[in-house]
Design brief:
Strand content: under 5%
Radius of gyration: 20 Å
CATH architecture: Orthogonal Bundle
CATH topology: P1 Nuclease
Bound molecules: zinc ion
Number of helices: 16
Helix content: 40-55%
Distance between the termini: 17 Å
Number of strands: 2
Structural class: mainly alpha
Strand order of the largest sheet: 1-2
Order of helices and strands: HHHHHHHHHHHHHHEEHH
Oligomer: single chain
CATH superfamily: P1 Nuclease
Number of domains: 1
């Protein structure tokens, strides 16, 4: 779950130390990273014994590297659009056929697909790569690809990753993206139940990715409308407070307002995090099964798993222009 896009331009324009609210807080505190790490971490505990025996010694790697894809967004060309899909750009009933990338390309240009985000296809792509890594018993690749796939699946469970109104700009609710996916989990996840049962085998991983995303998309209206209604009931000085972060004063949603929104969502954030954990475990498990359930114990990991984050080296940053 990430969150930059247009907000970053605002930071440059800020004329004093008071920068715009929650988005700024995320920059300093990585709220979104919190939920990603939790999801990858708990997904390991959904796995059957034989597979868990491979993952558990590398639990800290799987957890810490859950956020690699977000770190790559601004340094790898083509990474940014892997984290979302703006389904509202495709009419009232988007992608009824749950198409493969090839099928989708028959209907839309690659440019327009990439412009609106390619999350469902990225999940399938990462999945296939993971199956291959299992089949080749390539332990470092299995770990890296598992962490990446976990990230994309987690993103697919965030309603605001499925709409062009991803940060409420179209409805005068700017800041809601990080509010929902970062601040709420950070504040309330201690009370969540992350025991989600055992991973299941997924017959059709492409269709499953679409099912997840389409279900997540049905929550967009609630995410926005509930906050809109609540916002009308709070004065500005009740809705926000100022916090000092890294020597800067930033505006953030108040504790009372955050709690009210979290309560009004009736468990949605927890439900989506739980669903993400279950899905991530199920995808990992399915990849292993599809690779023929290879024996993994004792595989050499090597001295160090290569970090997948390249250094930024170009004047022009890749990704959506408005994110820079
Ligand atoms: Zn992401």
């Amino acid at each position: 779950m990430y969150y930059w896009r247009k907000e970053r331009q605002k930071y440059k324009k800020a004329s004093n130390f008071i920068l715009w609210g929650c988005c700024t807080i995320l920059l300093f505190c990585s709220w979104g990273f919190f939920a990603h790490k939790k999801i990858n971490h708990y997904a390991v505990f959904t796995l059957p014994k034989e597979l868990a025996a491979f993952y558990k010694p590398h639990l800290s790697y799987i957890t810490e590297h859950a956020v690699d894809p977000d770190k790559r967004r601004t340094v790898v060309l083509g990474e940014s659009e892997r984290h979302y899909i703006d389904l509202d750009r495709y009419g009232a009933n988007p992608f009824p056929e749950s198409p493969s990338w090839t099928k989708a390309m028959e209907q839309y240009s690659e440019d327009s697909l990439r412009q609106n985000g390619i999350l469902p296809w990225q999940i399938q792509r990462s999945y296939r790569q993971l199956v291959r890594a299992f089949a080749e018993k390539d332990a470092p690749a299995i770990l890296k690809l598992s962490a990446d796939l976990g990230h994309y699946i987690a993103d697919a469970h965030v309603p605001l990753h499925t709409t062009s109104n991803y940060n409420g700009k179209q409805t005068d609710q700017e800041g809601i993206h990080a509010f929902w996916e970062s601040r709420l989990p950070e504040m309330f996840a201690l009370r969540y139940n992350f025991v989600v049962g055992k991973a299941r085998y997924i017959d059709d991983t492409q269709k499953e990715a679409w099912n997840i995303i389409k279900n997540t998309y049905t929550l967009v209206d609630s995410v926005l409308q509930i906050e809109k209604r609540l916002s009308g009931q709070y004065k500005q000085n009740q809705k926000y407070r100022y916090e000092k972060r890294n020597q800067q004063l930033v505006r953030a949603y108040s504790t009372a307002y955050s709690k009210a929104y979290h309560d009004a969502l009736s468990g949605m954030v927890e439900q989506q995090m739980r669903a993400a954990i279950f899905s991530v475990g199920s995808y990992w498990y399915s990849a292993w099964v599809d690779a023929g359930q290879p024996q993994l114990t004792g595989l050499p990991i090597g001295t160090e798993i290569v970090d997948s984050i390249p250094q930024f080296s170009d004047e022009k940053k890749p990704g959506r222009e408005e994110w820079q």
